[in-house]
Structure formats: C-alpha cells, structure tokens
Amino acid sequence: MLAGINRVGDLEWEVPIGYVPGMRVPGRFFLSEALSETLEEGAVRQVANVATMPGIVKHSLAMPDIHWGYGFPIGGVAAFDMTEGVISPGGVGFDINCGVRLITTPLAEADIAGRKRELIERLFGAIPTGVGAKSALRVSNKDLNTIMVEGARWAVERGFGTEADLVRCEAEGAMPGADPDAVSSKARQRGVPQMGTLGAGNHFLEVQVVREILDPAAAEVFGLKEGQVCFMVHCGSRGLGHQVATDHLRTLEAGLTKYRIRLPDRQLACAPIDSPEGRGYYGGMVCAANYAWANRQVIMHEARNVFAKLFGIEYDGMRLVYDVAHNVAKFERHEVDGKLTEVCVHRKGATRAFGPKSPEIPHEYTEIGQPVIIPGSMGTSSYLLRGTATAMQKTWGSTCHGAGRVLSRSKVKKEVRGKDVREHLAGEGILVRAHSDAAIAEEAPEAYKPSHEVVRVVHELGLSAIVARLEPLGVIKG
Known about the structure:
- The structure is a single chain.
- Helices cover about 35% and strands about 25% of the residues.
- By secondary structure, the chain is of the alpha+beta class.
- It has one domain (about 5-405, about 450-475): tRNA-splicing ligase RtcB, CATH 3.90.1860.10.
- Helix 4 packs across helix 11 (about 275-310) and helix 8 (about 185-190) runs antiparallel to helix 10 (about 240-255).
C-alpha cells in the first residue's frame, strides 16, 4: 500500500488529514489486497483533494472500483452540508446519470440457444450505437423540454413501456428540480437526435443468464431464478449530459474567486449549493439525469419488442427489476451526529444502495432493500445485490458501480486486438456485436479489475449483499 495510508480494517484504508494540505476530513476507501495492486497514487490523491472541499461531511469516500477520474476519482462518494457545502460537476462526471437497468424475461437459456446470433443482430439493428449515434425517434425541442422535466414518464406516456416501469426506477425515473433554462442551446442540439441511443465506450446492452442464486429469498422478490434469460442496459445522458457538464464547469471555475474557494485541483470547480451558480448546475444536471432515464426507457422498449417478436413472448412478461444511477448528485436525508439531516450526496462511479425500510425504494422491495445492479466488464459476470443498513451508516447508502478500469482505452488498444477479443469471447459462447473491432478492444475484459473481487469486497463489508450472479451470452456495443 502507498506510504502515508493507514489500514483501519481488513478491507478499509484511511487517508489521514494532512495527506494533502487543507483536508477538512479524512479520506476512506475500501479495497482488498488483490485490488490494491492496481491502486493509482493519483486516485488516492483525488480522494484527499475532495476532502479539502468546503462543507464536506465525515469522510471523502471511494469504493473498491476506484480509479483516477476528472476531479473526483471514479468510485468517489462525498456528502456536503446544505448550508456550508458545495456542488461540483467533478463529483458527478461528464456522463450525468450514466446508469444501468436489469430486465427479466420468461425465457430459459435453452430457449434462445439456437437463435442467439439472430437475437444479437436484431438488437444491434434496433438500437443505435456508437459515437454520435442518432435515433430514428423524432424528438422536437418542445419534447426535449418535457423529457428534461418528466424523465422516463415522457417515454412511458408515449407507449415506450408501462407505469410499473416507473415505480422500479431510482427517483421513479425523474428527479425534481429540473431547470431547462440551465441547459444551453448546444446541449439541446446534441440531445434532440440522440434519444434512444446507446452511445459508445463502456455502454452496452447485454443478454445474460442467471447463473447462480446466492440469496434465494431476495431473488424471489426481485423475480430472478437460475437459468433465466435477462438483459441489461448500461448508458447515460449522451451528448446532452456531456455538454451540460462542460458548460457549467466553465461557469463554476470562473466563480471560485467570487466565493473565495481555494482548491488543490481546478477540476474540482464548485459553488455553494444555494448560490446562483450552484443552483444553475444542479438544475441543468437534473435535466440531463432525467434525459438519461428516458433514454434507457426507450432502449429497453426497443429491446423488449425484439424479444417479443423473435420468441413470441408477451411484452409485459419482461419485467424491469430496477434502474439505478451511478453518476449523480442528490439531496438526501441521512443520519449525521444522531440526527436525520439533508445533505448533497455526490456519487461518481458509485451506486445508491439504500437498505430495507427506506421510503425511497419501491414498496415491493421494502423488506429486502434496494436492488443494486453491478455490471461486469465485457465477458465477465455481472451481479445483482441489495442495499443494506450498513451502507446507510457508513457510505451514505452507496456501493461500487462496476469492475473499475485498470488500463486506459489507448493503452489497451495497443496491447490487444479487437478481432482476437471477439473470437476469444465467441469461443466461450459470448457473441459481441459492435461497429468496429477497435471499439471491442477498448472494452476488453483485461482493461478492468475482476468484477467478482470488487463485489466480494462490498459484500464482505456489508455495503451491499450479493443476490445473484449473471453471465453474458451476447452483447451489443458502440
């Protein structure tokens, strides 16, 4: 482990005050010995840098999928006092409300075995993928204003899903507080043609099979059984979200002097939560988050239609388990010094993991806890977990979000060939469809930490509890 870091538990490490000048609270991250071998000093420094920000409460946290990011590390979590604290785009990321949803089907693995390639091809044809992908769905500027306020409801009211889908989304698919006036014309221009598109990078639609049930009671509540075919959608707010982040970063950086905020890294540009700049960013961020929920809703609808037509199954027989964000800042009530207090929780590459009895999760899950969906890297297992009371106490109801990258896209493309990755995965029964082999190379399994080890750490710490393991059968990417 890096010098100056203190071990405070089997899987817990502390970055003490003083690791960098100006820290207001300690940093804390969760990591096994195996995962520590790929820990970047730059990511630890980012944990410490976040601890210097005004109004931060308790700790600057990072999950076991930690790696270097813009401002905050990926895997970073921090809560800020509503009066003294700040809000920062670096604590959310450029892909606002990048998130994931899991959908069950009534099919077994054997039911699709003979038509798996046709399924993947049809999904690839139905859902636009890749950098700058544009949708056949016609969205007007008026529609966009509604989408930014109503989120997934806009899609459902136009036939892209059911009312039951909304209940099974974090925030029911739309955060309050959207301010369309905080979204620039350039962001709007990018958002109008991209509704219902997957994008590129690590975004995907994956057909999976439930390979292992580890918590039968929770799996029954969530609607999963061994051998069942599911599909998972992972994407975000596309160009609109990226532009919202870019626009407001400039505004917030220019305002640092105005609010006398001194930071060790200008990528942490921020403003007081209740300042004009802070309110502007929050309102724009919510618009982008709501756009992302609508986007995943439309993509899920198109995938449902493909399954229904190809296998003759009912549309309503494909049930959304849950949709959860992992790049967002939210106003939440948490216990601070024995009192329920509203704080602004930033999760950047971290998943909300609220425990049983939380009023924020669907009533049908209240005894079990919130479903937590952790996608693997292409070719490795994904996991369904459930939120816990421990997470509420230790991490603002947060857990990991995925495997965590260890090789940059440019580096992995130098080390592996997409054609080789595709052929290797095909040999394991996993079909991959993308616009180019370069896109496949960027997301090769060796570019990521092992998902099973990341999930083991949060499970053993009690930050979330494993319910089921899912293996990939086929995947479409940008």
